[in-house]
């Protein structure tokens, strides 16, 4: 929009989210589906946290990271899904400007920590399989805390940068966001001022938050694969490949969709395809993580059974 037109328009104080659909008949069905997905995701991740807390055998670096991942998944889906459910029940989904910016900040904060935590988990698997003799030293409690701290710090800087950069943009109308939550690309399309700097920041952020972790994860698992192939025991190889395969599945879903969403800024306008990618990032990935990472593990399954039945852990 031309700057000269600003004088005839008022600043936007709220955004209208179009949501997943405008079909009135479809909204109750989507509400039930995503409410179930939310309950299953939160319940599954809380179960993982409970199992890790009560089972001494799970007090290991791998499950320390998995516990943090479960917390992040609960936070990530809570930032997006409850507001989306409220919008499905409303005639028109109106979100205050401050609420939209806050959702954007927390979403990018949690997703960023999630992505870097997956990198820390890949490094943990590399040390456990490729450097078993020094694993306990290299992955001490201090190192675990430092890795999580670094993940949080890098993501906080990234989220703050994008939030501040968006907050200084001028929104003078229209105020209709073709998405089910507030995110950077759809907001850029509504800006009356230049988004050149924002686009550059998004590209740099996507590189450090997506591309670099993907490279580090790939290198870690390349070393792991080479080490696993040298294992003589077929059972040992199967167990190692199963664990690493689960990790890589989550990485491909999570980082791959994020990379596609943010690295193609300006190529196409907002569409239903973006909403599908958003569902993969905000709902499907957090819902699958407990199943892929932990609930298939016999130790976790046994612990959950004991917790549900009120039995104590065997000594």
What overall form do the CA principal axes indicate? globular
Unreliable stretches (pLDDT < 50, length at least 5) are 1-9
Helix proportion of residues, in percent?
over 70%
Please give the alpha-carbon distance between the first and last residues.
69 Å
Q: What profile does the largest beta sheet have? A: 3 strands, mixed
Radius of gyration using CA atoms only: 22 Å
What is the CATH class name? Mainly Alpha
SSE order, one letter for each helix or strand: EHHEHHHEHHHHH
How many independent structural domains?
A: 1
**What is the overall number of helices?**
10
What would you call the structural class?
mainly alpha
Number of strands: 3
What is CATH's topology name? Rhopdopsin 7-helix transmembrane proteins
CATH architect. name: Up-down Bundle
User: Into which percentage range does the β-strand content fall?
Assistant: under 5%
According to CATH, the homologous superfamily is Rhodopsin 7-helix transmembrane proteins
Largest sheet strand order: 2-1-3
Mean pLDDT: 82
Could you write a compact summary of the structure shown?
By secondary structure, this protein is mainly alpha-helical. It is built from ten helices and three strands.
Structure report:
- It is built from 10 helices and 3 strands.
- By secondary structure, the chain is mostly helical.
- It has a single domain (15-309), classed as Up-down Bundle (Rhopdopsin 7-helix transmembrane proteins).
- The chain has a 3-stranded mixed beta sheet with strand order 2-1-3.
- The longest helix is centred in the middle third of the chain and has 34 residues, at 97-130.
- Mean pLDDT is 82; it is low at 1-9.
């Amino acid at each position: 929009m031309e700057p000269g037109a600003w004088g005839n328009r008022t600043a936007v104080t709220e955004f209208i989210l179009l949501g997943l659909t405008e079909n009135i008949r479809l909204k109750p069905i989507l509400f039930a589906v995503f409410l179930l997905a939310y309950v299953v995701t939160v319940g599954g991740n809380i179960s993982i946290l409970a199992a890790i807390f009560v089972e001494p055998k799970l007090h290991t670096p791998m499950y320390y990271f998995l516990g943090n991942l479960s917390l992040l998944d609960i936070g990530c889906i809570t930032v997006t899904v409850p507001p989306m459910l409220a919008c499905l029940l409303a005639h028109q989904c109106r979100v205050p400007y401050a609420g939209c910016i806050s959702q954007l900040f927390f979403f990018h904060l949690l997703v960023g920590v999630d992505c870097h935590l997956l990198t820390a988990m890949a490094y943990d698997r590399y040390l456990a399989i490729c450097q078993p003799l020094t694993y306990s030293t290299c992955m001490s409690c201090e190192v675990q805390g430092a890795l999580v701290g670094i993940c949080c710090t890098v993501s906080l800087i990234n989220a703050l940068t994008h939030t501040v950069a968006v907050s200084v943009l001028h929104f003078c109308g229209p105020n209709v966001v073709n998405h089910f939550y507030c995110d950077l690309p759809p907001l850029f399309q509504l800006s009356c001022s230049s988004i050149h700097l924002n686009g550059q920041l998004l590209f740099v952020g996507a590189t450090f938050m997506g591309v670099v972790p993907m490279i580090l994860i790939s290198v870690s698992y390349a070393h792991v694969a080479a080490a696993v192939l040298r294992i003589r025991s077929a059972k040992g190889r199967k167990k190692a490949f199963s664990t690493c395969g689960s990790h890589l599945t989550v990485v491909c879903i999570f980082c791959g969709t994020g990379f596609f969403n943010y690295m193609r800024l300006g190529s196409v306008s907002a569409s239903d395809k973006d909403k599908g990618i958003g569902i993969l990032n905000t709902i499907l990935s957090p819902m699958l993580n407990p199943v892929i990472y932990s609930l298939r593990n016999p130790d976790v399954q046994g612990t959950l059974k004991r917790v549900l039945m009120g039995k104590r852990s065997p000594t």
